[in-house]
Amino acid sequence: MMRGTNLQQQEATSSSATTEDISTSTIVNNQQDGGIATQEKKWTSGNTSIDFSKVELYYDQVSSWQLLKTYTALTSCRLPGVRTIGAEILEKGGPVVSQAVKYSYFQYFCGGETLPKTKKAIVDVTQNKKMHCILDYSVEGPVQPLETSVINVDSSEVVEDSICKVIAESIEFMGEQNRAMKRDGINEPLPCPFGVVKVTGISSCILLERLSKILCYVQLFPESEHAKKLLNTNIYFFGDIASDVSTFDLMKEYTVKQYPRTVAFNLNENTPPEPLSQVELTKLGRVIQRLTMLCDACVKNGMSLLVDAEQTYYQAAIDQLYMMMSIKYNNKEILKNRQTPVVYNTYQMYLKDALHRLQFDYHFLTQNGLHHGSKLVRGAYMKSETIRSNEMGIPYPFQQTLLETHVNYVRGVEFCLDNLYSEGNIGVLICSHNQDTLGMSSRLLTEKYGFEKKDPRVMFAQLYGMGDNLSHALVYHGYNVGKYVPFGSVTDVMPYLARRLIENGDMLSGSTVETQRIRSEIVRRAAIYSKAVYSKIVQFMEERKNQSSPPPTATASQ
Question: Which reaction does it catalyse (predicted)?
Answer without folding.
Answer: L-proline + a quinone = (S)-1-pyrroline-5-carboxylate + a quinol + H(+)
